[in-house]
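cache lookup: miss for this entity combination. No prior model stored, computing from scratch. Input as submitted by user K.M.:
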Amino acid sequence: MKTTVSDTGIPPGPRSVKKKRTAQWKRNLPLHFMILPAGILLLVYNYFPLIGNIMAFQKFRPNEGFFGSKWVGLDNFKYVFSLPDTPGVIWNTFFIAVMKLIAGIVIPVIVALLLNEMRSVRYKRVLQTVVYFPHFLSWVILSGIMIDILSPSQGIIGRAFTALGLEPVFFLGDAGVFPYSMVFTESWKEFGFGTIVYLAALTGIDPNLYEAAEIDGANRWKQTLNITLPGLMPTVVLMTILAMGNVLNAGFDQIFNLYSPQVYSTGDILDTFVYRLGMVDAQYSVATAVGLFKSVVSFTMLVISYAVAYKYTDYRVF
Amino acid sequence: MRKKTKGMQVFAVVNYIFLTAIALTCLLPMLNLLAISFSASPAVSAGKVGLWPVNFTFESYEYMANKPEFFISLGVSGKRLLLGVPISMIVSVLAAYPLSRQNNEFKARKYYIWFFVVPMLFYGGLIPSYMVVRNTGLLDSIWALVLPCAINVFNIILLMNFFRSIPKEMEEAAAIDGAGHFSILLRIVLPVSAPVLATVLLFFIVNHWNAWFDGLIYMNTPANYPLQTYLQTQVVGQDLMASTTRDIRQIGNISDRTGKAAQVFLAAIPVLAVYPFLQKYFTTGIVMGSVKG
């Protein structure tokens, strides 16, 4: 190994430091060029839109552009919050998102725990593969499937209900049922992903703990409560934090493809609302205002969840 | 040493059945769809089709074969993959390599990391993003499906973490021999990175294949729709009834449901076909991304 000036304990003189720095700078120049394409794309398609949120404070007209449109301050926000639909939309977003968050933790954890008890490694792998599969289908494809099978008169699930003598349920058409249908179908699609993560985490729990517990006479159930679940906590916390940043999204892809005007009262979320305001009604400024509101709330929730996690579990994402 | 109590045995059986049932629910909808697509429409409308076709027929697929829009959109998706995936891969690898350097080696790294992480925390919003795409002249162009989504910071982080785990000795040896960063990247880092490259490649392919919303908002002419966007307008957005009179005779024989089922199934085939073989890459990808933390 080359000895560097710093190794000798003598503080480096100004000239050798400068030489070293320029040498390093020259050497690293290619690195900057490498990052450049990604940096530019990020700048244009991620940072510029962030700046574009200025539209929320303007009465934006496309032909006047960002600099020509009139500044109206908080008027767009006031307008949106005065609309009768808005409180409902906000509530729906939170309700659906929180339910999805909870289901998105509980179901995969339970399935992972159950899978873990399975003896045959081969079959376990097969099951894992199968349940992970729906994650890779787009919501367009899944909506095509679900609109069909959930149809109370014609779909196999709908027919199964009538065959069992139950009242037909309008999973997608009944506003009362709709949010639960959304949570359920999303869980169905995504639980495989979480299951894999938790199964991997389970293998990281020290087997000696289990042995010690067994010697102490704990049965499998007690072991699960006292060893497995605490052992999974860090992973659960990580997954929850990652999900928190996303929470207000509440699943636009899914809801957009499965909703309809008759379920707007419980199914309309912030993103679908923004879509209709902006892309259909061309109320660009108002739609941007709603979007900005959502981003600010999302960010706040993210920060809070990081802070809470750090405080209570000593866990740091970065 | 483990005593197998009666309770444990019962549990094992019940567990087995329960998990199998859950796994089946992930498969059966596809089977139902397949069955519908091969069934005659009267049987479908009467609700007779379960997991097996009733009155087996190819008519819904024939109807589809005569619909050029499906194939045009398939072509658009193909173009999108051929253009978008290589671009995404190259740009991502080029970005991940510098980010994987040590902090003391590459002083600017801290700032770059923040630059890349911030967009993960804040999303610009639908309307502003649309405006930017519009103002960069990409509306109705294949580039609108390629450039805005080219960067996926999660994938870059995956690559970066893997690159960081490459033993320093290999790179140092090359550096001593006079290799610059490009050489190190091409000759040392990439050849050993096959697993992560395969994983990220698959993620990009799947995302491009499944993307439908960008096609919907950035494309103004239906001829420019990628496959999933076209599918969305057919299956979810509209009714089959909005077709020309030439089709009316065929429509009489095809119900909404069989036609839709055929199209949806065809769009799902690539993922269905490829998944069993490649799923281990998807799985390792998640594990790499999450457990490594």
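stored under new cache key. Chain B touches chain A through 97 residues (CB under 8 Å).
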